[in-house]
Monocarboxylate transporter 10
Amino acid sequence: VASFFFIGLMSMMIPLCHVFGGLIAVCLFMGLFDGCFICIMAPIAFELVGAQDVSQAIGFLLGLMSIPMTVGPPVAGLLRDHLGTYDVAFYLAGVPPLIGGAILCFIPWVHERQKLKER
């Protein structure tokens, strides 16, 4: 959850980097958190679907991730054409991971409530 949240935060910080060293630092942190996210994806898929379907679940996740990675750059280009800057594209790219991270924070709470209702 933290890595997903920080990926969104680092995406939104890219337009704020006015020095090359700052951009390098943001990219390093973004790469670190992206690596953590990718590494934890397989164990989570294994836990959710079991050993029999884990390869299919990982393939499905990567397939879903390919959609915004394919559509995002042309949309960013359109935003740049209309607004004259890429800043809005980076801010908008950071919003879904922030929302997703915030929603994922509630999963333990919901899971605990379900356990209490079952008792």
